[in-house]
Design goal:
A 4-stranded mixed beta sheet has the order 3-2-1-7. Strand 5 and strand 6 form a beta hairpin. It folds into 4 domains: 81 residues, Winged helix-like DNA-binding domain superfamily/Winged helix DNA-binding domain (Arc Repressor Mutant, subunit A), CATH 1.10.10.10; 209 residues, Tetratricopeptide repeat domain (Serine Threonine Protein Phosphatase 5, Tetratricopeptide repeat); 150 residues, no CATH class; 79 residues, no CATH class. It is mainly alpha-helical. It is 67% helix and 5% strand.
């Protein structure tokens, strides 16, 4: 981590609260940049925008569209060039901002934290280091307090109202939430309840609509025995929601019902509490306090899955990881009974959800680690149904890792036979203990893995026979009542669209693209409500990638490029790195073939070049 007074730092910037910039003079002292020095707002806006960008870099087309959306292309480009020159002149430093080229597009990058220190980047570094050290450690507590002191200065880009600033502000507000929530938890453990409460209240003051923070505050007050105060805060927030025509979630309402129910009971009790009765009461409240937290985790789970299929995984990966840590702590506080079973169910579910997200981010090793944790839970509670579910998930990750995890010197995907063999072993091992719907899905993945290992026409015949076997599970009901199975596999039986989608993948692998197209067409011909859900962006993008791959096999290159472009835009929206990598592979093959100069292929290349994920 870089300190703001480090000798290497030449510029110090504060984006939290009022915008403030200083530059180091030759004598080592700091000099504030006055507002008048910036001239018009172009240079200042460019400076802020690059500081808020990933790795402090952005393409020229992105900057033009965001900073000067109403200007003509020629005027906007003039403003950008002028702003770059102005920044270099203000700081008397040509290397402050450098140009780069990526996939034929020019962009700009600002110097890193070692040279241009920025408070929000310092906060992020402190929080990441605290997470690495373990949030319960003394060192982490000190780092979080340092980050909090920076956040206390004000909101991110608080003087900016342009559209480009909104997403950046929202992203950095999540960092502040992590910081203050983790601090509140640490203060609570140390018995400093007033400081813990202050962190929750400051977050609610910034965003009164944050029900997660509200529930955490209510749970904290409940554990402190301040039930009336919890109810009062709830009523204040409820009034705000009512005034704005909003409704509180069922999770929040259920939590408040628990608190109100117990508060009413205690108010009705007329006996005088003795030391012995207080101990009895406290011991009875402990499981209930845990239950309050578990309700929140259980209710959040289906929403996380919905976000996974329809939104970006990166938006909530830290929330999932934080939940897993909290559940691990709760696991140590319960030793038997229904609460223990619920904690295990939730841990199992969140491990596999985290694995899916890591998988989508191409962090296949991390995904496998999460899946192994889920397998350990299934083994410890002797639940073969859950064990088969986790084993099949690990097999699927090994299959994708073995198919798309490595590239050769030309950038083309290189199969990894050992991982594919491991995938087959996991998938075959899971089938005997899987529920009917899962058996069908595993059979489809197994046929795909077998297709990757094909060596002869006999092997292909065996693969086609296996893929047809999955059809027998259509209509057979799912009997498992496990929490994860009910959320991840909500349909009572294997749906036709899942069958056809899985078959299309295998048909592509064994070189039968016409059959793959036919299977995908069968999905489109299903009755309304029985096809692939339109709101599941991730799966619809995957279906288009499969179709693009099929058209590659049919040498319908323009159609393949058009489908890949459409899928790419969806994948960019949800930042699906694994699918974007596959689309890049399709584009690479198109560029090397006879269709390299086709309009559709060129447009696909342009769309890839504008991706924020390089």
């Amino acid at each position: 981590m870089i300190d703001s007074d480090d000798p290497s730092v030449r510029i110090r910037v504060r984006l939290l609260g009022p915008f403030h910039v200083e530059r180091r003079r030759e004598d080592g002292n700091w000099e504030a940049i006055k507002k008048t020095v910036w001239g018009n707002s172009s240079a200042r806006a460019l400076f802020k925008r690059l500081l808020g960008a990933d790795n402090r870099r952005a393409t020229g087309s992105q900057l033009l569209a965001e900073l000067w959306p109403r200007s003509s292309a020629r005027s906007a480009e003039h403003y950008l060039n002028h702003a770059v020159c102005k920044l270099r002149k203000i700081f008397q430093w040509d290397e402050l901002i450098t140009a780069f080229t990526s996939h034929g597009r020019v962009g700009y990058q600002l110097s890193d934290q070692a040279l241009v220190w920025c408070d929000i980047d310092a906060c992020e570094a402190l929080i990441i280091e605290a997470e690495r050290l373990g949030r319960a450690s003394t060192q982490a507590f000190s780092l979080l307090k340092q980050a909090r002191s920076l956040f206390d200065r004000g909101s991110m880009l608080e003087e900016e109202s342009a559209a480009w600033s909104l997403a950046i502000r929202a992203e950095k507000e999540k960092l502040e939430s992590y910081c203050r929530i983790w601090l509140a938890e640490a203060y609570e453990v140390q018995g400093e309840s007033s400081y813990a409460r202050m962190q929750y209240l400051q977050l609610l003051e910034r965003n009164p609509r944050d029900e997660d923070v509200l529930c955490r505050l209510l749970g904290f007050l409940y554990r402190q025995g301040k039930k009336q105060e919890a109810i009062s805060y709830y009523e204040e927030v409820k009034q705000y929601f009512d005034e704005h025509g909003l409704s509180l979630s069922k999770t929040t309402q259920k939590l408040v019902e628990l608190i109100q129910e117990e508060h009413s009971y205690l108010n009705r009790s007329s006996f005088k509490a003795t030391e012995e009765t207080n101990k009895v009461r406290q011991s009875s409240l402990m499981p209930r306090a845990l239950y309050v937290d578990l309700i929140r985790f259980q209710s959040n789970l289906p929403h996380f899955w919905q976000f996974y299929y329809a939104s970006t995984a990166l938006d909530f990966i830290f929330d999932i990881q934080a939940t897993i840590e909290e559940l691990r702590i709760l696991e140590q506080q319960v030793s038997r009974g229904g609460l223990q079973q619920l904690v295990w169910d939730l841990l199992f579910s969140y491990y596999l959800l985290a694995a899916r997200i890591a998988h989508d981010l191409r962090s296949y090793g991390m995904a496998t680690n999460y899946q192994n944790e889920a397998l350990n839970i299934a083994k410890s509670i002797d639940n073969l149904s859950l064990w088969a579910l986790a084993l099949s998930e690990r097999g699927f990750t090994q299959l994708v890792w073995g198919s798309f995890g490595e590239t050769d010197t030309l950038g083309a995907f290189q199969a990894h036979p050992k991982r594919i063999i491991d995938a087959v072993a996991d998938l075959e091992g899971a089938i005997p203990y899987a529920q009917p719907q899962l058996k069908g899905l595993i059979t489809l993945d197994l046929s795909r893995a077998m297709g990757m290992m094909k060596r002869s026409e006999t092997d292909i015949t065996r693969v086609l026979s296996t893929v047809e076997q999955a059809e027998q599970w259509i209509g057979q009901e799912q009997r498992s009542d496990d929490l994860y199975a009910r959320i991840c596999l909500p349909s009572p039986h294997l749906q036709h669209w899942r069958l056809y989608l899985g078959q299309a993948v295998t048909f592509n692998v064994v070189g039968h693209p016409a059959k793959a197209v036919a299977a995908l067409q069968a999905i489109k011909q299903l009755a309304p409500g029985e096809g692939l859900p339109a709101n599941e962006i991730r799966r619809n993008a995957w279906a288009m990638i499969i179709e693009a791959e099929a058209h590659m096999g049919l040498q319908s290159f323009d159609q393949a490029a058009t489908l890949a472009s459409t899928a790419l835009r969806s994948c960019q929206d949800i930042q699906s790195l694994s699918n974007i990598a596959i689309i890049r592979d399709i584009y690479s093959r198109l560029r090397q073939g006879s269709a390299s100069n086709h309009v559709a292929v060129i447009e696909l290349g342009k769309t890839l070049a504008t991706s924020a994920i390089i």
